[in-house]
Amino acid sequence: MILPEALLSGKERILIEWFFNKKTANAMATFMPADIDEYVKACSSLRGFAACSGIIAPSKRTCGKKQKLFGIKIKTPVLALGGDVGSAPNIYELMKALCETVTGGQIVACDHYIPEEQPEGLANELMTFLGRASVDRTRWRHSRRPIGQASHGPRSG
Fold first, then answer.
1. What is the pTM of this model?
2. For the segment 34-59, what is each residue's pLDDT rounded down to a tens digit?
3. Is 99 helix (H, G, I), strand (E, B) or coil?
4. Using CA atoms, how far apart are residues 32 and 50, in angstroms rounded to an integer?
5. Are strands 102-107 and 143-147 parallel, antiparallel or unpaired?
6. Distance, CA of 91 to chain centre
7. CA 96 to CA 121: how far, in whole Å?
């Protein structure tokens, strides 16, 4: 057992609720108690928390490998979406340096959990993005725009 796992064992609900409250535009409307119970169940299972925490705890070896890849642009078209109140609202801009063909922008009234917070907006963006597969890629390179509508109106980017 690793230290974070040992310290948080039995306290998964506290961590999950903290993340949801800090990384969701409207946690109470997005996650129902049954949803939180399911996340707690998954993280409480054998090695469940280790799998979750391993995503955000890179090793020096992994970072070195990733650094070497920054010089190679991704050739596959990429959809880069970030929540406008999230931890990566500028993910589209960041991905332009890494991708030959990137489209995307910000999902309005959304934070970190895009599928849970704005499922319809994400579904629409995925359908549009996937529908472009047969379109000439040069027509839609770097097409940034705000996505969705917030209750207070659209935000400018």
1. 0.63
2. 999 998 888 887 666 666 655 555 55
3. strand
4. 24
5. parallel
6. 9
7. 22
